[in-house]
Amino acid sequence: MKAKRILSPILLLLLLLLLFIVNNASGQFNIKSRLERLGPLRRAIINNQNVYKTIDKLEVQKVYYLIDGTVVNEQTKYKISPSTDNFIRYRVINDDESIIQVLPMMKFVNRGGNHTIEYWDENQDQNLTTLTNPSNYYFKIVDDLTTPAKKYLATQRLTAIPVTIPIKYRFKAYDSDTKFTFDANISYGFGYKIRINSNPYKEQYVRALFAIGVGLQEYMPRDSIKSETYKPDNELTLTNSVGMAYEGGSNFNIGLFLGWDRMFGSKKDWYYQNKPWLGIGIGYKFD
User: Fold this and answer.
1) Phi, psi at residue 59, to the nearest 5°?
2) In this structure, are residues 78 and 61 in contact, taking their beta carbons and an 8 Å threshold?
3) What residues pair up with 58 in beta bridges, in sequence order?
4) List of E strands, 33-120
5) pLDDT tens digits, 222-263
6) Keywords of this protein's UniProt record, alphabetized (predicted)?
7) What CATH architecture is 156-284?
8) Which residue intervals of the chain are DSSP H helices?
9) Taking Cα atoms as reference points, which of 278, 276, 280 lies closest to residue 173?
10) Of 105, 10, 104, 91, which Cα lies nearest the Cα of 47?
11) Which DSSP symbol is given to 128?
12) CA distances from 127 to 38, 88, 106, 123 (A)
């Protein structure tokens, strides 16, 4: 059994080494290129559920340059052109699916005035620059001429989202030390949503929130904190917090919160009753 455990990682390393040698010797089995394409796909799927494969010859125009944040007024039309045995992935940027971004590892091609977007081959093609990399642009699907000004959200607005704060840093209370706690809780945050960027096709916001909710905490009375025999029970708590959460490109929000918890009735002598904490919060928008 021990021999198998030792041999397994050795065989795996030998296999990876063999693939590396084949890749560099022939230039035909390009693992690096495939992995580089999978990375953007994985990130896009996690952050944005609207990831698609192109239909053949999807026609688009440049509308926004991500590198310096400028609107592009170019009339050239490009056809996103997968090869016969392949496809090109892109992700939808706005609600009506008229603005898209192709995933990395693409190139612009001009064949006698016919402009296309195709796969980039690092073994045959020239290196991409920021200007010649299609993934640095947002494209408008030509069939839909809806202007972005009619679609993106207001710069500021009232907001409400569910929030959980699973990790809390608790300050010293009485004679205890500072500590991290991990607990189950759910709150609803109410506040103000403020836009922080000027990209008309992909909004970024911060949310200033006041949250109130319930959670489960280990109950330990003040006189038992140093006890080695006391066994704490989980009790219901009311949790309040204020904080700032960031939202950009996905339904998830993440932020920093300052809050306090309290128990009721005979549990009011809880060690951390109304004592402040700092926590990392995760929110989710449904709108």
Assistant:
1) -100, 130
2) yes
3) 80
4) 51-53, 58-65, 70-71, 77-80, 89-92, 99-102, 106-111, 114-119
5) 776 666 666 778 889 999 999 999 988 778 899 999 999 999
6) Plasmid
7) Beta Barrel (2.40)
8) 2-26, 31-47
9) 276
10) 91
11) P
12) 19, 19, 11, 10
> 218 exposed, middle or buried (CB, 10 Å; 0-12, 13-18, 19+)?
middle
Q: In the numeric block, which tokens belong to residue 154?
A: 């207001």
Name the amino acid, one letter, at 227: S
* Residues 195-225: tens digit of each pLDDT: 887 776 677 889 999 999 999 988 888 776 6
275: tokens are: 């004592």
The model's pLDDT over 124-155, given as tens digits with 9 standing for 90+, comes to 778 888 888 899 999 998 864 334 443 344 45
Give the residue from 234, 233, 218 showing the smallest Cα distance to 271: 218
The pair of structure tokens assigned to 281 is 């919060």
Total count of residues recorded for the chain: 287
d(CA 15, CA 269): 61
Domain locations in the chain as residue ranges: 49-146, 156-284
Amino acid letter for position 189: G
Name the one residue in this structure whose structure tokens are 């971004």: 101
Both tokens assigned to 35: 């992995």
Bridge-based pairing state of the strands 156-170 and 137-141: unpaired
Token digits of residue 268: 């009011």
